[in-house]
Amino acid sequence: MKIEKIQVLRGPNIWSIRRKKLIQMRLDLEEVEHQPTNKIPGFRERLEKLIPSLITHRCSEGVEGGFFQRVEMGTWMGHVIEHIALEIQTLAGMDTGFGRTRETKTPGVYNVVFSYIEENSGVYTAEQSVEIAQCLIDGTDYDIDACIKRLKEIRERERLGPSTGSIVEEAVARNIPWIRLGKNSLVQLGYGVNQQRFQATITGNTSSIAVDIACNKELTKKMLDDAAIPVPTGDLVVDEEDLERVIRKIGYPIVLKPLDGNHGRGQSINVNDWETAKIGLQHAQTVSRKVIVERYVTGYDFRVLVINHKMVAAARRVPANVVGDGEMNIQQLIDKENLDPRRGYGHENVLTEILVDKDTNELLEKLNYTLESVPQKGEIVYLKSTANLSTGGTSIDVTDMIHPENVTMCERVSKIIGLDVCGIDIMAENLTQPLKESGGAILEVNAAPGFRMHLAPSEGLPRNVAAPVVDMLYPQGKPVRIPIIAVTGTNGKTTTTRLIAHIVKNNGYRVGFTTSDGIYIQNTMLTKGDTTGPISAEFVLKDPTVEFAVLETARGGILRSGLGFSYCDIGVLTNIKEDHLGLSDIHNLKDLTRVKRVVLDSVKKDGWSVLNADDDYSMRLMPELDSKVALFSLDENNPHIKKFAKEGKITCVYEDGFITIKKGDWKIRVAKAHNIPITMEGKAKFMISNVLAASLATYLYGFEIEDISNSLRTFIPSAQLTPGRLNIFKFKNFKVLIDFAHNPAG
Questions:
Q1: Is 324 within 8 Å of 381 (Cβ atoms)?
Q2: CA atoms of 530 and 560, how far apart (whole Å)
Q3: In the chain, where does the domain assigned CATH 3.30.1490.20 lie?
Q4: Closest listed residue to residue 395, CA positions, set 317, 343, 338
Q5: Which of 3, 16, 344, 737 has the smallest set of CB atoms within 10 Å of its CB?
Q6: Inter-residue contact 25 to 119 (CB < 8 Å)
Q7: 3-state SS assignment for residue 487
């Protein structure tokens, strides 16, 4: 078998409008095309032994084990590869579930399509699924465990962290679009001028000064101390002389931590002697030259989360530990704890597996233990000095137990430091008493606090702490999207796009539009070339100045990656004519129609699809569309137009030389074609068709007829405004007409 091509689809596509993230693999089965699974001795048995969990795949049989039944009866290898791709992703913690396998017009060549969670894991899955199938055919060994492990590694490298991911999930639940900016955790919510950005749990509104203050633990402590908020006593040191001075002042036990560290890096906790203190200083200085030394406060480790200066959650954090049973050694107890189904690799689950590291060995050494030591029954052995979930710690939700005075104090802390998303670390016996009474203290204030301990605590109620972040970024009534008009078809797309953009701009919007000539913001070309695909659409939607997007959308981009937006307000289909046939499995007008309809299927339900009543293939789509439909035609007597008129629906027709909008018996003249420069005094009928489409689309959006009319009269065709579209150059004794006639209709 041979993989001819792997494509990553990222938006609405020909396979699915709702499932945007799909891998499309073009696979040549070669000689395997003539070997259905029931003709390959032992194939089903080898498959079942290698991936027994495929028993859950019901397939078309509709029952558990249905897929294995299909394999037993005989099915084609593309179908098998589709199921393998879905299952190995599931085994790697990425439950996807959507797949299709369809033969192309080339015998033996199939499109195998399946959903993915992370892009590179999807590509790797495609490659390995074919490799697995080949090994099963040949009867050779395949290391499935290594494959799953590699998929998990790719997933962890690529995926958004749990905090970022939770905010994205909350946004998606509210129908807020999102775009990942780069490969890390920087995310854009919304489009254009209405966008908001965040990275991890730092938002675009987070004060840079506040983050600097929080990162400077000594300054944070001073500001809180000045505000009468309990903090541990201590000072800043840079060498052993300083360290000795501070210890004489505050006594043991102490804590040493880097001035600007985070996530517990470089910290030494509950230090009780000089030698350990010196080692702790060296450890902290691997992170920061300046080290905070402060009195160790006894109690439990609490984290309080404040968002938009309101307390939303609190948790008690417990360092990774094991409990002795009097029989197993510490390593065995760790292995047993890691079997907990809640624990997983990295952030794949609510808890992280416990790994033995330097910190673990140092803690065991203090207890005169090794990994082979057997703790007494009921003895708790702590394996980490900090309670971070990323090192195997657990959390207990205590949100409903926190004393009102502590709530007020934490909200005050967030305002003193100035953080809109704020994690406050508290050491205390409990939070049910005011902190000043319990003898507790605030140890740190964190910018970009992690959410996982609140989203999925080991004990207690999960808290949807992503919701208040989205509430803060998008308060009730604040717009999220910008209007989008998408234009597709064979001929007239670019001119129609430019006409619509011109009308929108003249109505006071800052418009961004894409064409086969380039990307424009307010008529300024920012990128030259054929920019009718999803990357170009995203370019416009990422621009923070754009208030309205008009997007020419060609077949190539749809086939290559899908659409660059989730849905549009209005979709315009100019026509469907012969062009680019024979490429990318598009062999006839029926195939081409399937591609073009992706735009119309992505129109929101209360939006409009604008169709050409003079075009047969466009009209065949009409009954299948979920959105509202309006028609345009060069012929006022077109039967589709007449039917729409009887039904009281909206149309735009060329009537008695005028661009005319109708609804039932009501009609209004927009402009005389003779007075619209782009129509060449009404002689260029195909240009009149473009004007009809643009007039109808902008009218449906809500622009006034007078404003549309004025804009049409000021749209002057030229090499600058409409390059390659009916450009006339006048010379002394003759004229030259240049047009981009790239197909029979052109």
A1: yes
A2: 14
A3: 233-295
A4: 317
A5: 737
A6: no
A7: strand
Whole-angstrom Cα distance, residue 302 to residue 446?
13
- pLDDT tens track for 395-423: 999 999 999 999 999 999 999 999 999 99
Which of 308, 24, 311, 18 is closest to 172 using CA atoms?
18
Domain 233-295 homologous superfamily, CATH: ATP-grasp fold, A domain (3.30.1490.20)
CA separation for the pair 293, 248 (Å, rounded): 12
What is the predicted pLDDT for the residue at 59? 84
CA distance 257 to 440: 19
Query: How does pLDDT run across 669-715, given as a tens digit for each residue?
Result: 999 999 999 998 898 899 999 999 999 999 999 999 999 999 999 99
- Interior angle at CA 228, CA 222 and CA 305, nearest 5: 80
**Angle 194-9-170 from CA coordinates, rounded to 5°:** 40
| C-alpha span between 116 and 89 (Å, rounded) | 8
How far, in Å, CA of 530 to CA of 519, rounded? Answer: 9
Q: Which two tokens stand for residue 630?
A: 């309006």
Task: For strands 109-115 and 186-189, give the pairing.
Answer: unpaired
Task: Give how far the C-alpha of residue 70 lies from the chain's centroid of Cα atoms, to the nearest Å.
Answer: 35
With H, G, I as helix, E, B as strand and everything else as coil, classify residue 605.
strand
pLDDT of residue 383 exceeding 90, the answer is: yes
- Alpha-carbon distance of 367 to 381, in angstroms, equals 9
Q: What is the DSSP letter of 376?
A: P
Report the DSSP beta bridge partners of residue 196: 189
CA distance 66 to 674: 66
| Poorest-pLDDT segment among 102-111, 640-649, 736-745 | 736-745
* Lowest pLDDT segment from 155-159, 342-346, 467-471, 636-640: 342-346
What beta strand segments (E) does 155-242 contain?
178-180, 186-189, 196-199, 202-203, 234-237
* Cα–Cα distance, 452 to 737 (Å, whole number): 65
A 10 A CB-CB count for 404 gives: 9
Q: Which CATH number fits domain 484-719: 3.30.70.3270, 3.50.80.10, 3.40.1190.10, 3.20.20.300?
A: 3.40.1190.10
- What would the two tokens of residue 92 be? 């790697």
Q: Which residue has the tokens 């989205």?
A: 470
| E-assigned strand segments in 367-469 | 380-382, 394-397, 421-428, 441-447
CATH code 3.40.1190.10 region(s) in the chain? 484-719
pTM listed for this prediction: 0.89
Cis peptide before 253 (omega within 30 of 0): yes
| 713 contact partners, CB below 8 Å, separation of at least 6 | 671, 675, 676, 677
Is residue 263 very low, low, confident or very high in pLDDT (cuts 50, 70, 90)? low
